[in-house]
Design goal:
The structure holds 2 protein chains of 2 kinds. By secondary structure, chain A is mostly helical. Chain A is about 70% helix and about 0% strand. In chain A, helix 10 packs parallel to helix 12, helix 11 packs antiparallel against helix 12 and helix 14 packs antiparallel against helix 15. The longest helix of chain A is centred in the N-terminal third of the chain and has 22 residues. Chain A is elongated, with a radius of gyration of 24 Å. Chain B is an alpha+beta fold. Chain B has 2 helices and 6 strands. In chain B, strand 3 and strand 4 form a beta hairpin. The model of chain B has no long low-confidence stretch (mean pLDDT about 90). Classes of the chains: A mainly alpha, B alpha+beta. At the A-B interface, helix 1 and helix 2 of A face helix 1, strand 2 and strand 5 of B.
Amino acid sequence: MDASDHLYRREAGRMVATLTRIFGVHNIALAEDVVHDAFCRALEVWKFRGIPENPSAWLMASAKNRALDVMRRERTALRYAPELGRLLESEWTLRPTLDEAFEPHAIKDDQLRMMFSCCNPRLTENAQIALILQLLCGFSVREVAAAYLIGYAAAEKRIGRAKKVLAASEGLFEIAGAADFTARLAAVQRALYLLFNEGYHGSSSESPVRTDLCREAMRLASLLLAHPLAATPATRALYALMCFNAARLTGRVDALGDLIPLADQDRSLWDRRLIDEGERYINLAATGAEVSEYHIEAALAAMHTCAPSAAETNWAEIVELYDALLRLRSSPVVELNRAIAIAQIDGPERGLAELRAISDSEKLASYPFYAAALGDFELRCGRGEYAREHFQSALSLARNPMERRFLERRLAACSAAAEAG
Amino acid sequence: MSEFLYLYRGGANRADRTPAENEASLKEWVTWLTDLGQKGHIKDPGQPLEDSGKVVSGKAKTITDGPYAEAKDLIGGYTIVEATDIEQAAQLAGGCPIFQIGGAVEIRPVIKM
């Protein structure tokens, strides 16, 4: 029965993208209706006749037939995408045009067009990702709301507004020959990067990691890799980064669903196959003159993933990579991570000095792991009372139950250290 | 063994349920019907039915849109099962996932010569 596991998630994006291309971007709601309808009907039939060998092909055929029905029924009312309109209005060319549109290579291209269209510069990054989740990953409004821990109404509003922007655009983004291709590709990479991170850190979610979000980000990234124009060194580096981090997902959470710090993870649980894949793509990314932030982040992830233990990690090189990253993009969070790496080499006092030297540290005021890092270093310096204060303020900033439990354990460690001392 | 017709009323896949819920319901149906089949109770697994149709009635054979039953009474599909008697047929229907979403199974013995 695995065949139907998340079938809708896997197939809906392909079908919506293709139908949107056929009906035109202004008819995106119709495309979604047809897909939903085709899916519900397929499920009704499978209840009685069993799940077919190839449910994907079955669903695609069902969506195509539903599209034909709609087009014949609404012939006069429908206004199509300009480039296909003429072909779809005549019964002579309708069927072959539709068959052509449902060829596997065409479906792949349509998903890419849709991905690029969702990353419209008129939309915020959050709106772009919400749109990608719904249109390309088959997430319902409820599931988008759950992924971002926002209310149903807020998610609905965010998606609704984003769709209006999309529907009002001239058409789906054409990858070949687009003048703004490079800028749009960067936006797509960024959206997939953020989507993956949302799954990896689960900062706004109930569960510590959201494997499904990571998997979707990787699936969409691999679509980029399959296209000659989109498979740039930065795309490959991004994919390598995802592989290295995804490889460690299995070791990040304990049996109670709590986060395990990197130093305490059982490295034998990490996924060897994904690590190899990461190494393959980081090598493939090493062409051309551009060193993107994904290159550096992938190299950082590789350093951690390939080290036999936290103690045997090459922290000096990690500090250098953070320096390189900061030259590309200044970020207080990166500076925080750099300070933690420096403390691994030169000890906690030096780490405290680095933390206090962070240029934009007020931007970290609401980030629990800044206070937690201060607490960690104080504790390692043997100043349990200071450590406790920092962990208290970190706890007051915790964004979800998992972070709260993690910080409570750190607080308990302060008390244990005080008793021992 | 006698034959019985199961008529499923109400409880079809609906738009207000998420695809994941509909997929979970599909699995339960397949599990239930496969189990009945393996125990030799399935004569014909049957088919789902469209919600809308036509009704032809009267001497004038008037054709109207129909059947216009209330959603909870609408027949969504059928199965033909084999059982020793109607009590067993009713007991076998108890495993149908339709009850979780407020539907019902009507059981009608097929008249044999």
